Amino acid sequence: MASYKLVNFKTLGDERGSLIAIEQGYNAPFEIKRVYYIFDTKEGVERGFHAHINLKQIAIAVKGSCTFVLDNGTKREEIKLTNPNQGLFIEGLIWREMKNFSFDCVLIVLASEHYNESDYIRDYNKFLEVVKNVSCIS
Ligand code: TYD
Q1: Residue 74 pLDDT > 90
Q2: pLDDT tens-digit profile of 16-68?
């Protein structure tokens, strides 16, 4: 199954400022095996350009903003992450590209699996082929 959705995390705040907690099984619907973050992205840089076979991820622009291009093989959509209380949940065969990183963007990603290059599809035509084959089977 391939899907993505933008979720809002509850912000716990008081006069000192804000805090967001992400907990496995509560507002993160998978076991978190890996966390990575992208920062200091140079102006005009576009990243990603891949899909994953099995990985589940939640991406959060904890500072600054960036735009995700999400493609399920049929439809392309752009989602801009602008707020640390927004999480972009991505599951299954979704081609993703990231662009328009603000100079201060810190994009943190929570992932359901350890880094595994064999879970990546980095060729767009191969991605379309895999999507087509999966939809024939299911
Ligand atoms: P890359 O896949 O090019 O990043 P993006 O898709 O965001 O543009 O990853 C850059 C490098 O970092 C590449 O050599 C793989 C490595 N890497 C890890 O070692 N562990 C990780 O968890 C990730 C996401 C990347």
Answers
A1: yes
A2: 999 999 999 999 999 999 999 999 999 999 999 999 999 999 999 999 999 99
Residue 138: predicted pLDDT: 67
Residue 19 located in a structural domain: no
Q: Say which CATH number the domain at 84 has.
A: 2.60.120.10
The catalytic site residues sit at 50
Q: In the chain, at which residue ranges do the beta strands (DSSP E only) sit?
A: 3-8, 12-14, 17-19, 34-39, 47-52, 56-63, 66-71, 76-81, 86-91, 95-99, 106-111, 120-121
> What range defines the domain where residue 44 resides?
3-10+25-137
Spell out the residues 6+ positions from residue 50 whose beta carbon is closer than 8 angstroms to its own: 95, 96, 120, 121, 122
Cβ–ligand 1 contact at 119 (below 6 Å): no
Q: Is the CB of 47 under 6 A from ligand 1?
A: yes
pLDDT at 77 over 90: yes
The residues near 88 (Cβ < 8 Å, ≥ 6 apart) are 4, 5, 6, 7, 58, 59, 60, 68, 79, 81
